[in-house]
Design goal:
The protein contains no helices and 7 strands. It has 107 residues and is mainly beta.
Length: 107
Amino acid sequence: MNQTIAIINGSECYVLARFLDINGVPYVPTSLSYSVQDLTNDLQVQAPTSVTPAQTVTITLTAGVNVMNPASALIERRMVVLKVGIPGGTFRNDTVQYQILAAQGTP
């Protein structure tokens, strides 16, 4: 079951990524970066940013990254794209989606 995570406008949140091969064995990517897209307004919010690869990585999405675009109404959809370097020289893109909710009383 997929469940959409929602946070309040201007809140910090985290992405926890664990890297497993096709057999479920943990591995360390050869490279790792992430970007954040505003799907509601079709905008890039965070440019691709390199992260030190490890078997498990926690990426902090700061409060500044999670500020809604003024063009949004009450909900804004976001997507984090992880570009993962696979041992052997290839890459894959993994995604996580979340929503930002306008705080109560926000115009």
